[in-house]
Amino acid sequence: MAAEDDIVEWFEAAAETAGAVQSQTLRRIIESNLGSEYLGRWLGGDLRVQDLSPAELESLFTSAVPLATHADLEPYIQRIAHGDASPVLTQQPITMLSLSSGTTGGRPKYVPFTRFSSQSTLEIFRLAAAYRSRVFPIRSGGRILEFIYSSKQFQTKGGLMAGTATTHYFASEEFKTKQRTTKCFTCSPFEVISAGDYQQSTYCHLLLGLLFHEEVEFVASTFAYSIVQALTAFEELWEELCEDMRQGTLSSKISMPTMRKAVVENLVPNPSLASKIERECEGLRRSGWCGLIPRVWPNAKYIYSIMTGSMQPYLRKLRHYAGEVPLVCAEYGSTESWIGVNLEPLNPPERVAFAVIPTFSYFEFIPLHKQRKQDSSSRLVTTDDDFEEGQPVPLCKVSVGQQYEIVLTTFTGLYRYRLGDVVEVAGFYKGTPQLTFVCRRKLVLTVNIDKNTERDLQLAVEKGSCLLSRTKAELVDFTSHAEVAHHPGHYVIYWEIKGEVEEGVLQDCCREMDAAFVDQGYVVSRKTSSIGPLELRIVDTGTFRKIMEHFIGNGTAMSQFKTPRCTTNQVLLTILDCCTVKRFWSTAYSP
Ligand code: AMP
């Protein structure tokens, strides 16, 4: 039987008995880490796990160990980072720490990374590839044009290796195994992926992608942003790339010796290919680069990347480049743990759901309800955001249509850890839930009693930017800020636009966004003027690139970068304010 069938069979069996598999997963996590300080503190070091039934162990664990946020675990993780080699969170010492992107939460966080982390990454990639190849068969020996990037690995004070999770994975044995054993190979060698300079790497990814253009079976990245960024760069770079192909040379802007050497090895003068690509690009430029991917990579079967959540705003641009080539959503996970796999690659990004993999972590789900007046018998806990919380439930007890916050207990030493993601249960695949990603739980915009999440903001921006379709302009990226320094506070939304737009249209966009926030706190505050008119600020071309470069300069990997949708970061606000070229206010409020 082919390895692809084996992994599908393994997953289907696990999904069938997901509840029991979760109990075993929890038992394995507890057995391997009971000697750790953290688990010992809550469960007692002399617990005899083997004397308890699965149900008893689950019930003991969830009653004795408290729910925790990253802030609760931070003192433990800091000790590890400072070199404490005692069993703090796990029995086996942690030797690597990952940095979560920090662009969603605002600040990078350390999270333990172990061999299990890269093994599960390889496993989920193989599983997803097996499901994809059922509907999109690809040629063995073909190539993948992958826009992937490592950032720098560095040592913490205590000498532990630190870096982003993708960086650790790309440096791991598991990644090498994947490169050796999968049907298709990445166009770029490791030296390009790991160079640590995203502009130089992007140039080389593109050049190698062009050289192997007929062999490219699909185009991929971790998050969709990287594909859009690379193809936008292509619009500027194609002539130079074609010249390099014609001459068999490599642009002098590629200054890193190891990357140069690895790329140059693949180069031979190819004037006919250069002319062919040039002809395509001249036509594409005239049509605004619509359908770039199929024209330049004619055998690409699909585009594969994370396209949900904060990547949704880039879908329009991605579709523009993709033409008829289908978009396939990549998996759902986080630096802390992988969570779910896309079993239905034909589903468009707007409808994708992820089947939870019950062997990766022990998952719990906190039911979330939009806040409403409570009766005295309610067991719901009121929180400072827009939700009331119920009691966490195990994976097999979730209800279809209900929204939850995910809680993880991992093999890497996180116990009942609140991930901060809100998901909705779309259905079940055998015994395991299928989740749609809703948003990060954290509020992004709040001035007083108003409560808006990243999703609310995204919807408002979508509504406002719809009006741009009347023009030839498009929204490149956006972010926001709740301005409370002056009374009354108000929302500021920053847009970078490509193309010309009349001021009247932007004024309408601003009004439309203001009216699109339907949260009652906002509506009431706007009507009573305790929140001022929404302000739309148009920023100069390249502003969001500067923001991305600020994060990359501070250690974020391009592969994991997500534009912060709301910011209080002074450096970012200074960049945004310096780059503001026009301002509009929504003075006539009509929700
Ligand atoms: P990081 O902090 O870089 O590890 O990013 C992890 C976060 O990215 C998750 O907690 C989610 O909020 C988001 N994310 C990851 N995968 C997906 C996905 N498939 N769809 C939507 N959001 C995702």
TrEMBL record:
GO terms for cellular component: cytoplasm. Residues 355-440 form the GH3 middle domain. It holds the Pfam family GH3. InterPro entries: GH3, GH3_C, GH3_M. It comes from the Eukaryota. The keyword Ribosomal protein does not apply. One of its GO terms (molecular function) is acid-amino acid ligase activity. Residues 456-570 form the GH3 C-terminal domain. Keywords: Ligase. Belongs to the IAA-amido conjugating enzyme family. This is Uncharacterized protein.
